[in-house]
Amino acid sequence: MHMNQFIATDGAENRAEGEQLFSVRLIDRRTGEVPSVNGIPLSILTHSPRSTVADFMRGRNRQLWRAEVEPVNSPSGGARHGATP
Asked: What superkingdom does the record give (predicted)?
């Protein structure tokens, strides 16, 4: 399955969390689906997953939305890193 993603620009100040690249997705709790913008799933590649999750969740009802974070090309084979409750 091919998934288009937005890539967040990471300046030196955003690399505090390390060099690992993460995929961060917004999930609609009502449907379990990733919302799309013009047919492109809302997903971002970043070195700063905490700040990306904070940006995704800002102003959103946490009863309706959650964010999923997965490492990209991790040594563990890309196992899920975690999700916001």
From this structure: Bacteria
